[in-house]
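Hi team,

Below is the intake form for FAD-dependent urate hydroxylase from Microbacterium dauci. Please confirm the fields before the structure is written into the shared record.

FORM ID: S-0412
PROTEIN: FAD-dependent urate hydroxylase
ORGANISM: Microbacterium dauci
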Amino acid sequence: MKVIIVGAGIGGTSAGIALQRLGHEVVIYDQMRENKPVGAALSLWSNGVKVLNWLGLGAEVAALGGDMADMAYIDGHTGETLCDFSLAPVTAQTGQRPYPVARADLQSLMMERFGMSGIRLGMKLVGIDDDGSQVTATFADGSTDTADLLIGADGARSITRAYVQPDGTPPIEREYSGYTNFNGLIALDERIGRSTAWTTYVADGKRAAVMPVAGDRFYFWFDVPQPSGVPFDRADGVAPLREAFAGWAPGVQALIDGIDPAVSLNRVEIWDITPFPTWAKGRVAILGDAAHNTAPDIGQGACLALEDAFALGIAFATNTVSVEDTLLRYQDVRAARAGDLVLRARKRGHETHAFDPVATQAWYDSLRGTDGAGIIRGIVGNIDGTPVHLGGGLRHT
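The structure came back. Fields below:
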């Protein structure tokens, strides 16, 4: 069977590897002209890492992952440690240690494992036609390709998403989450946080955080609540951060000082999409951000895309009625779970960014002196229900 995948990101390449391993002919198209991932790094919680293990990438991903043994929250103004605890219970309950990884490193690994000869860059999808026996993709340069099915892993502004919706459905629109995120990579600096900890400074509905990744680096990110459309000139460098975090603790100032905007500084407004049930039509289906564009507030965006790839692979390995039937079974496995986590992330973002000041202050108060048990429950709760467990669930110690 021939498969066209549109999108060479984490979701598209993982789906491509999964379907290749089942013996299918897979070609991936992407509009990017070279491997330039959006965002500096990502959180791979246990559910995402397990999919990569299943794809045969376990050792390589472990080498890319940072040693994130602990989690700490710090008062952004005073520098006081609110809580500091081990993440070992996450590993014990789920059976896999989580890793933060640099996105470019992971995406390069996955593209190489899939095979660069099967990836066509600089190809923008503009049309889809399903005649009931084959799907034809049309690209902006006028070229076409035909296959037995098409998987749209074409991101938050997906063309494929619109195609699979029922006729007469109102357009699915992205919704602004209320804040802007700045992120990048810097050298490890113990003045900011321990090299083995995810350290987050919090105050005023804002966050500044670092997570360790391979290569003696921190992945950093800042959240700044503000309206959509605030002007930004890349020449401003870290000036918006100095303004937003003026007077914050020395660790935050050290973080800002350590950023080289010419090397690694991204700015992105955070948007999501209210969950919707239709992921497949005929011989076409969607996965990744095309299916569940989410805010990063629970760190499950990439993991959900990897779960999609796992579920798609299992669906095609075990169902034989028809392509159309298999894609609907994949949809049935994924849509409710992914939608639930999108809404959890939205709720979490509302709590942490002071859109409800009372709720945010209550969260700050709950961090002070906690042993982390409640936070661990939340992290593990997001992982529980993953299809990767195949009904095995969690071990509660």
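SUMMARY LINE: The mean pLDDT is 95.

Thanks, M.
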